[in-house]
Amino acid sequence: MTGMATERTAILLMHCADQQGLVAAISEFIARNEGNIVYLDQHVDERRGIFFMRVEWELARFRVAVEAIDKAFDEAIGQRFGMHWTLSFSDEVPRIAIMVSRLPHCLYDLLSRWQSGEWRVEIPVLISNHEDLGDVAEQFGLPYHVLPVTPENKAHQEQRLLELLRAQRVDLIVLARYMQILGPQLIANYPNRIINIHHSFLPAFPGARPYHNAHARGVKIIGATSHYATAELDAGPIIAQDVVHITHRDPVEELIRKGRDLEKLVLARAVWAHIQRKVLCYENRTVIFD
Amino acid sequence: MTGMATERTAILLMHCADQQGLVAAISEFIARNEGNIVYLDQHVDERRGIFFMRVEWELARFRVAVEAIDKAFDEAIGQRFGMHWTLSFSDEVPRIAIMVSRLPHCLYDLLSRWQSGEWRVEIPVLISNHEDLGDVAEQFGLPYHVLPVTPENKAHQEQRLLELLRAQRVDLIVLARYMQILGPQLIANYPNRIINIHHSFLPAFPGARPYHNAHARGVKIIGATSHYATAELDAGPIIAQDVVHITHRDPVEELIRKGRDLEKLVLARAVWAHIQRKVLCYENRTVIFD
Amino acid sequence: MTGMATERTAILLMHCADQQGLVAAISEFIARNEGNIVYLDQHVDERRGIFFMRVEWELARFRVAVEAIDKAFDEAIGQRFGMHWTLSFSDEVPRIAIMVSRLPHCLYDLLSRWQSGEWRVEIPVLISNHEDLGDVAEQFGLPYHVLPVTPENKAHQEQRLLELLRAQRVDLIVLARYMQILGPQLIANYPNRIINIHHSFLPAFPGARPYHNAHARGVKIIGATSHYATAELDAGPIIAQDVVHITHRDPVEELIRKGRDLEKLVLARAVWAHIQRKVLCYENRTVIFD
Amino acid sequence: MTGMATERTAILLMHCADQQGLVAAISEFIARNEGNIVYLDQHVDERRGIFFMRVEWELARFRVAVEAIDKAFDEAIGQRFGMHWTLSFSDEVPRIAIMVSRLPHCLYDLLSRWQSGEWRVEIPVLISNHEDLGDVAEQFGLPYHVLPVTPENKAHQEQRLLELLRAQRVDLIVLARYMQILGPQLIANYPNRIINIHHSFLPAFPGARPYHNAHARGVKIIGATSHYATAELDAGPIIAQDVVHITHRDPVEELIRKGRDLEKLVLARAVWAHIQRKVLCYENRTVIFD
C-alpha cells in the first residue's frame, strides 16, 4: 500500500512485450542497489502477449540518487526490453482540477476527502460552465472559474481552459458530473489524465439521460462508471464500476437519488486508484493494481 | 411467503388504471368472505397511472368455493375497475419444460432444486437441439427430446416442439442456456411464460459472445439477466439481474467461469419468482413482488 | 415515495395483533373520506402474529381536516383493533442534531446532503465532545457545542445535552461516529430517535476497535451497521447494514479507509429511511418499508 | 490463471521473514533455468514482517527435471532465506472426499462441477453420518460410506474415517454441510486440508442455528463463510465469505432458502481457490492469491 509507507518510495509502472527474465531483471536492479521492495504486482495478458508490472520500493538506503533513477533504470532495463514505463515518488502531491456543472454531490465528496486530509492532493482550481456551485467553492476556500460554453465560443473557451490548467500545473482533471463534451485539444493534452464519471454501467445507456433510459428498459440494476475521457464519448478506458439493485417501486427520481451515492463512490475509487499510481492503460483498457 | 403458508391459499395478481378505493374494495371482498390475508403488496406507477397488486389469502374458512372465486371476484371487483387479473392457488404445481443446448451448469442447478424438493414443480420434459446433455437427463430419470434445428427444418421443428409442450401440459418453459432463437409461433403461444438467461447485464452486450465483448470493452463488472423471451431478441421484460466484479487479471475464459455461477443463480431467482406468482408484466417491464 | 409526492400527504405507521379485516378497515377509512392512497405496504410477522402497515395518502381532497385526522382514525380504527400507530405529514421537516467526535467523514456527508437540498431537514445544532470539528461546523454555518465528557462530569453533561436538545426541539439525534457512550436518560428520552453508526457488521465485532479485530480474525468482508441506540451498547434495532470485500492485501489502515465510505453510506441510508417515516420498531427489530 | 495454462506448469507457494532480494533471487532462479513465468504475485505483511509469494512457470523448456526441482529450489533459495514452501504441478489432479449429513444443496453443486468437467478433480468417496444422500451418490456413480456417529462410537468411527481417507489417498476433505464436529485426530492429520462451510458471516453467529439467531437479532444481511477446519469450532482460517441482503419480510425459512444459494457458492469458491493452489495459511489467516 503506497498510502501506508511511512518512508519515501519510488513507484514504477511498466509494460512491454512479454519475454523471459523480466521480473528477474527488474527485481535484480532494485536489489542490487539496496532497494527494499514493498509492493510488486505483475500481470501478463497472454492473449496479447503483454507484460505489466507495478513495483514500489523504499528509497532510504537506495544507492541511486532520486534524480538519477530514471536514467539508470532506462539503461539497465527500459531499453533492453523495449519497455514503456513511468517513474513517480510517493511524496509527489498530485494537483487536481475539478470540473463541475450544476450537480454538487460528487464535488462535496471530493472536497471533503481533500479538506479532511483523507487524500493528500492539492486542488488549485474548480472550473464550471455554470455559476451554481460557486458558493461551495467559496465555502471550501477554493477559486472558482466560470467558463460558460456556447456553440460559438467553444473553441475559445477550450483555449482559456487549457491556459488555466497549465498555469496551475494541473496533473489530473476530474469531471465531477461536468455535463459538457470536452474539446479534442484538451483531451489530446491530457491523455489518461482526465477522469469522468458516467451515470450508468457502461456500455449500457451511454449518452444523455441514462437513468431515464434504464427506467424505460426496466432493468433491475443501475450503475456508475468512471473512465478516462477520450475523443469518443463514453468510450474511454474504464477505471471503476459499481451497481446497485433497484426494483419496480423506484421511479426515475429514485434512480437518480440512488445513483448519486453510487456516482460519488465510484468516482472517488477511480481517482484514488489514479493518485496511488495503480492504473495503467493500454488498448483502451486499464490494468488496476490493487 | 407463499412457500411458507401451510394452508392452501388463493393468489391474485392484478393491474388496472389507478383509481380511488381499489385497495378498500379488494380487501373488503376478501374480508367479507372470511378470507385471512397473509400477503398484500400494492404498487402504483404514478407516471403511467397504473395500479398493481398481489394479494394472497387463506382458504380454510373462505366462504366462496374455490371453483367459484374467479366469477365472484370478477363480478365484485374485476369488471367494476376494468382490471386485468389472474387467480391461482398455492397447491397448483407448475409443469416446467427445460430447454438446453450443450452447457450443463444451469440444467444441473435446476434439476437439483427440483429433485431435492427445494422447488415444488414438475419437470415432465427436457428438450435440446443437441445430444450432449442426454446423460444428465437420464441420470435424473427424465425424458430427453432432441430436436436439432437447421435453417431448412426450423418451422417443422417448432411445430413438433409446440405439440410436445402441449402434450405435456407445460406451464412454463425455461431456456437454460438454449443457444437457438425461438420461433415466433412458440413465443406467441407462451407469452410471459418463457424464461431465458442471457449472459450479460442487458442492455449491455446483447446477442452472441457477450463475455468476449465484455472483455474487449474492458468492463469491471460482468452480469447475467433473466427475462421473458419476446419476439425481439434479448429485449423482453427483465425479471432478475445480478453482477460480479472482475479485474484485468481475468481472461475471457475466467469471465466465462465466473459468469456461469451468476447465470445459474440469476436464472433460479427468476424461475422462483415466477412460480411463486410474484411476477407481473406490463409494457415490457416487470413488477416483482417480494 | 414520499419524496416524490408533489402534494401534501398523510403517513400512518401502525402495528397490532394480526386479525381479519385490518387492511379492509384501514383502506375503507381512507377511501370513504376521499383520500387517494399513493403508498401501501403491509407485512405480517406470522410467527409473532403481528400486523404492520405503512399507508400514505394525498390530502388534497381528504374530507377530514388535518388536525382532526388522529382523533378520527383512533375512533374508527385504532381503538377497535388495539393498534399502535403514529401519524405524520409529508411537509413536516425533521430537526436533526448531529453528534460527532474527531472523525469528519460522516459529518461532511450528512451536511452536504442537507446543504445541497438532497434532504429536506433542519440541522439546528452540532454537538461534540471534542473541539476538532468546529471548523467544519463553521464552514457550513452551523452552531457547534463542545461538551467534553469525563467520568466526573458525565451526569452533568448529559443534563446539559438534554436541555440543548429540548431547546432546539430536536426530533432525531444522529451519532456520526460519536465515540462516547450515551447516558441512560438521554436514551430513555429519545426512544428509536437516536441513530448510531457502528463500524462492523454487527453482531460481529461489537465494542471498540472493530477494524483491528476484523483484521486479526482474517475476515474477507468488513461492514457497517446503523441502528437505534439503546441502553445496551451496539445491541439496538438494526436499520441498515452493508459490507465490502477485502483481501489479505489490506492492512488495518486500509480497512479503516474502505470502511469510512461504507459508514457514511450506511448511516445516510438509515437516516433517509427514518426521515421518510419508513422505519417501524418492535421487539428490538425494525420493519423497513421500501 | 492456472486453469488457463495449456502447458504443464510448476507452482510455488512460499512464505518467510521479509528480507531484501527475495523476488530477485526467486525470479532469477526461474529465469536462469529457462522457465517462463506466467503468474507471479507477491505480498508483504508489513506489520508481521512476512513475505508471501505465489509463482507459476511453464516447464516446457525448463532445464531442471520435474523430479529435481524441489531439491534445486531448496538449495538455491529455500535454505538461504529460511523459507516455507510447497511445490506442485498443474497436472496433478486433487482427490477430494466430500462429507455430508442430510442437506443436499452443496453436494449437488460440487458433484455437478466435477461431473461436467468444470473442475478437474477426482472424488473417490462420499462419506456421511446419515443414509439420506446415498441416492444422490448412486445417481452420480460414487461410493457412499455411512459412518453414523454416537458419543460411544465417536473415537472408533474417526479411526475408520481416517483409514478410509488414507486408503483413497485423499488430498482434500470438503465438509458440504456435514453437521458433526470432527475428531481432533482427523483435524491434526489434515492441516489446512479440510474445508468447511458455515452458514453465517463468521465471527457472527458461530455454532448451531445461525439463521435462527440472525433472524432473532434482526440483521439486514446474512452470510456464509468457508474456512479450514481447526480444533476450535468455527474459528479456523477464513478462505471465502459472502453475504446477501434480507428484509423484515423474510421469515427464518426464507433466510434458510436464500442462505442455501450463498453456501454453495461460497464453498465452491473456497474449494476452487484451494485446488488452484492459491491459498496460503499462516497465523490462522489466509493469503488468497487471485
TrEMBL record, chains A, B, C, D:
A Pfam entry, by short name: Formyl_trans_N
GO molecular function, one term: formyltetrahydrofolate deformylase activity
UniProt record, GO biological process: 'de novo' IMP biosynthetic process; one-carbon metabolic process
Top enzyme class: hydrolase
Gene3D superfamilies found in the cross-reference section: 3.30.70.260, Formyl transferase, N-terminal domain
Record's keyword terms, sorted: Hydrolase, One-carbon metabolism, Purine biosynthesis
Catalyzed chemical reaction(s): (6R)-10-formyltetrahydrofolate + H2O = (6S)-5,6,7,8-tetrahydrofolate + formate + H(+)
InterPro entries xrefs: ACT-like_dom_sf, ACT_dom, Formyl-FH4-Hydrolase_C, Formyl_transf_N, Formyl_transf_N_sf, PurU, PurU_ACT
Annotated metabolic or biological route of this protein: Purine metabolism; IMP biosynthesis via de novo pathway; formate from 10-formyl-5,6,7,8-tetrahydrofolate: step 1/1
The ACT domain, residue ranges: 11-83
EC number: 3.5.1.10
Domain of life assignment: Bacteria
Entry annotation: catalytic residues: D234
Function: Catalyzes the hydrolysis of 10-formyltetrahydrofolate (formyl-FH4) to formate and tetrahydrofolate (FH4).
Family as reported in the entry's similarity comment: Belongs to the PurU family.
Protein name: Formyltetrahydrofolate deformylase
Lineage: Bacteria, Pseudomonadati, Pseudomonadota, Gammaproteobacteria, Chromatiales
